[in-house]
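Hi,

Apologies if this is the wrong queue. I'm a grad student, and the batch job for Integral membrane protein from Pseudomonas marincola produced an output file that my downstream script rejects. I'm not sure whether the problem is my script or the file. Here is the sequence I used:
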Amino acid sequence: MSYLLIKIIHLCAAAFFIGGVFFEVMILSRASSQLPAEARAQLSTALGARARKVMHWVVLALYGAGLALAWNYRAVLAHPFASSFSFLLSLKILFALSILGHFIVVVWLMRTGRSTPKRSRIIHLSVLTQMICIVVLAKSMMFAW
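Support response: The file is valid. Your script probably expects a header line. Output copied below for reference.
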């Protein structure tokens, strides 16, 4: 698979993932609070089921393509403080791993019945903030190369 195709897959998956989290945090959570409890529960169940089907593939494409792209920069990543580019790329990867950790925590919380609206909101805000940082870092990397 060509570098350009991998890059396109990575960018599209990132757009889908960031868009989904943005929609959930900034729009859906605020709008659903205006619904009656029964409607909110139905909406949450329906969206959760759909999101689990779609987002697993998006995350797989995002991280799979990210790994393939990182492989091309393994020599640069071996020395993360050698240049601005290597530092920014390393930081971007750290944020991506943190987001993956959040994703694993969400799955664990859901499976153990420990997920609460407050925990979910905090995790989603944290993930959205880190995603914004990744976008800024990715754009900054273009100027550091």
